[in-house]
Prior knowledge:
Four copies of one chain form a homotetramer.
Chain A: E1 3-9, H1 13-28, E2 35-42, H2 46-56, E3 60-62, H3 65-70, E4 76-79, H4 86-95, E5 99-102, H5 110-123, E6 127-129, H6 137-147, E7 154-162, H7 179-182, H8 186-201, E8 205-213, E9 218-220, E10 240-242, E11 248-255, E12 260-266, E13 275-282, E14 285-290, E15 296-301, E16 311-315, H9 336-353, H10 361-380, E17 384-385
Protein name (chains A, B, C, D): Dehydrogenase
Domain GFO/IDH/MocA-like oxidoreductase (chains A, B, C, D): 141-287
Keywords (chains A, B, C, D): Oxidoreductase
Amino acid sequence: MRTLKVAMIGGGFMGKAHSLAYAGMPMFFWPAPAIPVRQTVVDINDALAKEAADRYGFANYSSDWRRVIEDPEIDIIDIVTPNNTHAEIAIAAAQAGKHIISEKPLARTTEEAKQMLEAVNKAGVKHMVAFNYRRTPAVTLAKKYIEEGAIGNILNFRGTYLQDWSADPNSPLSWRFRKDIAGSGTLGDIATHVIDFARYLVGEITEVMGTSNTWIKERPVQSGGADKLGAVKAAGDVQKQTVDVDDEISTLVRFENGAVGSIEATRNAWGRNNFLTFEIHGDKGSLSFNYERRDELQVCFSNDPDDRRGFRTIYTGPAHPNGGALWPIPALGIGYGETKIIEAHDFIASIVDDTEVSPNFYDGYRISVISDAILESAASGKWVRTGV
Amino acid sequence: MRTLKVAMIGGGFMGKAHSLAYAGMPMFFWPAPAIPVRQTVVDINDALAKEAADRYGFANYSSDWRRVIEDPEIDIIDIVTPNNTHAEIAIAAAQAGKHIISEKPLARTTEEAKQMLEAVNKAGVKHMVAFNYRRTPAVTLAKKYIEEGAIGNILNFRGTYLQDWSADPNSPLSWRFRKDIAGSGTLGDIATHVIDFARYLVGEITEVMGTSNTWIKERPVQSGGADKLGAVKAAGDVQKQTVDVDDEISTLVRFENGAVGSIEATRNAWGRNNFLTFEIHGDKGSLSFNYERRDELQVCFSNDPDDRRGFRTIYTGPAHPNGGALWPIPALGIGYGETKIIEAHDFIASIVDDTEVSPNFYDGYRISVISDAILESAASGKWVRTGV
Amino acid sequence: MRTLKVAMIGGGFMGKAHSLAYAGMPMFFWPAPAIPVRQTVVDINDALAKEAADRYGFANYSSDWRRVIEDPEIDIIDIVTPNNTHAEIAIAAAQAGKHIISEKPLARTTEEAKQMLEAVNKAGVKHMVAFNYRRTPAVTLAKKYIEEGAIGNILNFRGTYLQDWSADPNSPLSWRFRKDIAGSGTLGDIATHVIDFARYLVGEITEVMGTSNTWIKERPVQSGGADKLGAVKAAGDVQKQTVDVDDEISTLVRFENGAVGSIEATRNAWGRNNFLTFEIHGDKGSLSFNYERRDELQVCFSNDPDDRRGFRTIYTGPAHPNGGALWPIPALGIGYGETKIIEAHDFIASIVDDTEVSPNFYDGYRISVISDAILESAASGKWVRTGV
Amino acid sequence: MRTLKVAMIGGGFMGKAHSLAYAGMPMFFWPAPAIPVRQTVVDINDALAKEAADRYGFANYSSDWRRVIEDPEIDIIDIVTPNNTHAEIAIAAAQAGKHIISEKPLARTTEEAKQMLEAVNKAGVKHMVAFNYRRTPAVTLAKKYIEEGAIGNILNFRGTYLQDWSADPNSPLSWRFRKDIAGSGTLGDIATHVIDFARYLVGEITEVMGTSNTWIKERPVQSGGADKLGAVKAAGDVQKQTVDVDDEISTLVRFENGAVGSIEATRNAWGRNNFLTFEIHGDKGSLSFNYERRDELQVCFSNDPDDRRGFRTIYTGPAHPNGGALWPIPALGIGYGETKIIEAHDFIASIVDDTEVSPNFYDGYRISVISDAILESAASGKWVRTGV
């Protein structure tokens, strides 16, 4: 059976998720298009890299990502590092002829994203951005219903991504709060998932009108470099540093097909953990989804009889997209891992079959353009077109 | 025991709700500040008015509202007619020295609302606008938590009002779809309830930036004059007429206290019936409410221990605002009737105690100003200030 | 228009609910079969009775229920007193030729219930027991679906009624905790509503096997006679008295049609307020209901396509039973009041039309037989047949 | 780093789950107590076994489980075969000195279970039964709350496990419907998970009183041997065979500590997919859990202030049991895989640390005893003690 050798650059929590995906992919999708081999993992020093190899089941390790990219054995470069490194690694990997999957957001800036897109296009390699949430089976089912026309023409999209892990002003200023590393705050980190949903389910966004807020103006400097999200909180007399990215984004959007919508994302929503939702109204029905209850899709069909119409709670399973590959009954339990396993499958299948996969670097670039437009509109108070 | 004699102008579904409120108010609030007496009901002809009197338990009836307003026996004028008549009736009632409660929206236009406000101020009578939903016990409880500081400073308000009774293009063009009668569409009819929530719970709205859409461009002419909402649908080869009001409103808002927010309202949301919701994020907690499950308020307190923090589902009852007056245990069942009973009580108490009640004509006027600003921003594509 | 004059015996919280029902019934059901007139209210002394008349809108009052029953003007006797008085009043009312509606449970004992049933049968008057919850529109809709065969043959019924108002050992020993007055505890007070659901929706119960527990063995003696449920709690060094009724009932049941089921009721379920639920599995579908979210019925149809099958959340409204009489759109808000308004309507319609209404004294008697069988099985540890 | 070599006997869907667990365990729990090595997989013939090795990442394969058990390299035997083979394999594995994890139920009969327990006790090896659902983080959190006394003394346990994958009479008669292979039907397959919850969270069950039903008396013979659950349905004129196991179990239970409860399990609940729930009432609070929404635990604390008391929705995450090993924020997504990863960890840790793990073969034996008692009580109509 064909194998594809993966070098994973980065060993944080995303490394865990991606490693699980490579291990689990052929277990779920069988016969697999190809077996991904965890060949080499890279971290910032040899000790960390060795530990990552042991932990995540990689055959080799290295602290020199440039050398790994040059390794002729490697087929796929998987980028799970902070945002400020995506462009450099991806462009080098493309030049070395490797297929590339990058964590989201694709880059800190649209300029970086554009260069990355040009590099992969020039190299003719496969490329993907890891907006994994759209691969939640319930989201894929929503896409299927829409394509079948089951909810008719889409009028309205309402998406949110609400979290609270940084709502506490004492949660540390990790790299996710630094513009030089992350590019933006909530916008790039989580709002982009909603933008990905919107483009995937409704279509291209042509115009935006947003607001942006930084509710917590300064945060304690993080001790230690790890990406612990909100788990570690500072206490006592700690040094604080100014936050130069957004905590919250709220925007109106217009779609190419005439639909309208709104997108809101915040990390200051006490009680909301991973509240990634959408509600879509079509002229023949509605869809509603909340990732916190991700086994479920809510759908209402207008052509149900008047006395039997209402949202149906569909638990995804064998009767739905990718159902044969997943668990044998609905609600056995889709977790974060499964979304990453499907993502890994679809990327590898695109390499084997030489087809396009989505979301790819073009999508990542477009999401960057839209993100910039949101910030521009927030600054100017005016609608901003996204150049489509 | 003191009594206050009510003349109710209009006999549609709102007449039913108000009549039940007058009958039920002293049963719930006892001792009552005063007993409201259903004295006279007015409808467009004597036959309809007599039927309304029989049905709603009024002592007298009339088809001449002007004469009823002049009746020295009458203490309160209750306006439950379509929007185009509110101003004329209310101004005449004020000039006659009557206390006035008017259904919402207060008027078709800000100019009308302003005249009404001036009239009641000049007359020194009590005045109220029947935005009853804020009197849902769970909403009043949200207000109490906010006033106690339980969720801290408010950062964000997200409100929606989603319905589907006119999502079918064959649902008839009742007066609610005619600008000359209603003033606006979804905006005045239901978005105003969300605006009322926003002002009640967060504070004055200073600036808006909205969109407005009319999804169904024409509708069948309604046969019969009754306000049946979506219940009666046209079939076959019927005459259609252009809709000149909005089906949907979506707007970003800014509040005087620095909070931001969004408000969306539509009557084209298949599967949503009376989906009047808000979610509020403060720096110390969050609130979430959905009128479709109106016995419940969701609240999260940030100062709960890390391993015990989450939204609490509070069922309102004796331990909460107006609890002593309502049912003896939570979830026995708050319905539309109860919101109107509390409203009737608070209005009558304001008359007896000579205090201000809210929302009053000033609130109705402000909501009209904000509504106009939303339409203006939708037309201009620019943020519009609301003059505060 | 025909009127029917009501004498209501008792003025507690149930008196409030019934009074609202009489006032509101013609407002909702129009043309009304007859207008109920609140003629006379009876309480234990003249002062209380006068206050009840003022509060609940009755024309007269009395402290002598026997005289009121003899009053030839009175058509209907409405019994809203504690359980120990139901039999005596009802039998006297039947002998006086009055139609009778009694609060539930019908009586303290099966023997009392049997005598009451014989009395109304002999007198040929109409009779009803106020198990109002089955008149929640969503429950009536469940009945309709079942009658249409939409869920096929019923296999299983699971019903619960969970409350917490007496979970605190300091909540007072009101009459509801005294066997001499109430007959039983949770069983008669709330489990009987579930038994009523079971018989209404599935059919006659032939056999039971239950357990019974009294978790809180003694409670503070209540100061004051009012029925305050859990609202008033004792503090400090109070006198306590032994509880001689059940706090909790759990039982397996078998139905005449071959279905099986379980019924559980407790007042010691912290966090459950009025958690009256059922779930029914048929061979072609399922139903699920929770009164705490009473505007909704959940229904699943097996013949939906595999990829679109799931529970539908139906919000009851104009398209459903009694929809024309209630509010013009779903989720406008069904409360406790509406269930009582429908109950009043159906009772009065049965008088005017000379038809049987259900649940009547026969149903009340059967529920008493079943309740006794549950207690007997709890004592003996053996299945007990209910004599059908 | 220490490794433990696993031989997995069986390659169906459970093989997938266990293989993912071994691969993922050190990724989540790091440093791992030991790294599990997927050494050998066994299936019924070499071709299937080879395919399983390729798919699930095992180094070797075999069709001779007896030889594999004798392999001195192997540390752990993992039994994921149908129930009728558990005893023979486990006893042989114990005699060969291997640590054993077996899928549930432990055996077809109590006699088999007893022999297995004796074998592992005699051999002094570690043993576990794979009731994985209790390792859902929300269930572990429930256990923690109970142990902390946060809900006080437990009064009541109500557990259900409702599915619908075999509600269709055309779903095939797989081995799960054959007494000779499965031992029992719904009882052994899913009710045992609820019994495991009950014993884990509340304590030993001393007495049961149940009913048992087989709703679908015959089913189509399955073509092909695979365990496809309900996914494949027969059509047309197929051969049918009698079902000799239960479709549904409903039982009352009594616990050693005085609590009571009920357990219901069925595979005929249309619309319920994996509806594994419990609700527990203590004298100081309540817990509620539904695996279909497994990231959440509902908890109510009686000592919350009256106006702030209600069920809290806790999303499990870093602040809760195993939180450090799982995902960095709550609701990122616990799936079936994570429950198995935790299970694998705890089993391997028990080997390394030489401690007892639970549920082990003693628990499996007790659950078998209780299951037998349920069937006996269903047959006799009498309470049956479980010998504790």
